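FYI - complex with S-adenosylmethionine, inputs then prediction.
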Amino acid sequence: MYNPKSHCADEFINHEEILATLAYADEHKNDMELIDSILKKAEPQVRDNGLFCQGLSHREASVLLACEDPAVLERIYDLAERIKKAFYGNRIVMFAPLYLSNYCINGCVYCPYHLKNKTIPRKKLSQEEIRKEVIALQDMGHKRLALETGEDPINCPIEYVLESIKTIYSIQHKNGAIRRVNVNIAATTVENYRKLKEAGIGTYILFQETYHKESYLQLHPTGPKHDYNYHTEAMDRAMEGGIDDVGLGVLFGLELYRYEFAGLLMHAEHLEATFGVGPHTISVPRLKKADDINPDDFDNGISDETFAKLCALIRISVPYTGMIISTRESQAVREKVIRLGVSQISGASRTSVGGYAEEDRPTDTEQFDVSDQRTLDEVVRWLMEMDYIPSFCTACYREGRTGDRFMQLCKSGQIQNCCHPNALMTLKEFLMDYATEETKAVGEKMIKEQLAHIPRERTREICEERLQLIEQGIRDFRF
Ligand code: SAM
């Protein structure tokens, strides 16, 4: 039976409830009165001197997803854009993935790391190799990483991941530093989540891949990941272990997107109902070509248009959850969905183990084909030319603003006095230390203009002082 407060996967992601939701959505997809009321419910409202959004339930959002009326789609896009602007301003947070190991004992049929793949060279970085990767990443200007590994308790135990995190945080090359390490590793125990929390991770990210249990069991035929309930209940264990920033995601292309969308929102509702805080982020990866993997073998691929609609609907349904897009997507697709709600993007990613320290992009151990192959400098300039502020900010979790404290910041309307100056200061660091002259010129102009958008006068003054200090070589300021 459906119960968002249950800790049992079959109850909080309930198959019958999803089927009933999809039937309800089909029944009401042309009910313009209902659709109008749903869109109005999702509108930002003024409350306690700030803007507030109540979001949408999985049923409401599913009706909007099912509706094919072009005028409704325009309203969805317009609303998503306004919510994005209200809560995230024009900041885009930058990060890069770091692949530590591709040893894996699972049989995931869509992933090149699967155990039976004998053509992919298996690799695990030594601490010395991690140093080289991190220096290469710092030299590009990255401050925030997402660690990635396959699942292999012998070749890649939790102790190795913990030691690697320690190594990463300890490296300071020139003015570089990795200030936030997010972790995307297989579902694990409460005890291990506690260890990750103690190691100072930011967000724990785990993609559900698919919420459809029957398909999940077929797509993960062997290995520990076969256990659907253990995987689906991972975020509950992470929360129990003290990690209060968790990142959800679906791998679009595996199952029917309407089913996945309802499941994803039910997962968010479950976290909100049981822990009082929704997911920190939602990722929206799409299945890509990789070694031994042909996306055409999977028949649920979605068009760029459907993908954009999904991103916009996630934005209006869970307005306080950050949305992440990777270099699986092309520049053109990224451009479209950043406008509709994406708040975090990776740049200059290499998805191979040890790829950053190499001169040329190695492809033999890549986890997936990278569509956007631009340098970080190019991505930063591109964002600014579209009037977005690339932000290398990592302040929140370092200031203890995680879980519900971060949500309070979002809801209090103080983001513009906090995240905005932090974005400008970290952008300034990037311009001073890593940017080409062309990017620097665009960036300096942007910082000057954007200072005016810090509402509180005193904060603006402090920010200006700190920008001067950054020019003089001092680093790492934050509000
Ligand atoms: N091994 C960990 C786990 O089991 O969750 C997570 C790390 S895995 C390196 C990161 C993610 O890459 C997976 O969760 C999956 O969604 C995604 N992925 C796997 N194969 C892919 C493919 N062919 N195209 C795009 N993304 C893929």
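The radius of gyration is 21 Å. The first strand starts at residue 45 and ends at 47.
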